[in-house]
Design goal:
The protein is an alpha+beta fold and 168 residues long. The chain is built from six helices and five strands; from the N terminus they run αααααββββαβ. It is globular and about 45 Å long.
């Protein structure tokens, strides 16, 4: 579902109109959010993994892509959403996959994020809850990119995960 949301959001952004919220986005505080009743009532096919992290200019689209990768259990891609091709995650690919691989059927709920700028960078702080069966993991994911400044690399300009308090 997050992949469909990302496409709807992207299409709406191109038309200059607001996109409808995905069913699993709740404006309420994420730690208290419950999984969508429709998610439990009808099975949904896992989103197809994407070959590379989203390079969208909209952090909400990037975060939705990350959420789709988590739900698809594509740990290589989930790690790649971190800065510098995943190396900023602090774990190599095998260790990252081992840690996140404990999630068997994750469903990601994204809360309302806050975007702010500071010292030449933009930050997007989003509350996130991952439901995995009866287990709930709540925390924050902070995306970052530098402002459009001369000399900024493609990696600097890409929204990427800078930090997370999620502990799978």
């Amino acid at each position: 579902m997050p992949a469909l949301f990302a496409l709807a959001l992207l299409a709406a952004c191109q038309r200059g109109q607001p996109a409808a919220q995905a069913p699993d986005r709740h404006p309420a505080a994420v730690p208290n959010a419950a999984p969508s009743p429709t998610a439990a009532a009808s099975p949904v096919a896992a989103p197809a993994p994407v070959a590379a992290p989203s390079a969208a200019r909209d952090p909400e689209v990037v975060l939705a892509g990350w959420a789709a990768a988590v739900e698809a259990r594509d740990w290589r891609l989930v790690r790649a959403y971190w800065g510098h091709g995943g190396s900023d995650a602090g774990l190599d690919e095998a260790a990252f996959a081992a840690r996140w691989g404990a999630l068997k059927a994750p469903r990601v709920t994204l809360g309302l994020a806050e975007e702010e700028g500071a010292a030449g960078s933009l930050f997007y702080d989003a509350p996130v809850m991952i439901a995995d069966g009866k287990r709930r993991i709540a925390g924050h994911v902070v995306l970052r990119r530098v402002n459009d400044v001369d000399g900024a690399s493609v990696e600097d300009l890409r929204w990427h995960i800078q930090s997370s308090t999620l502990a799978p």
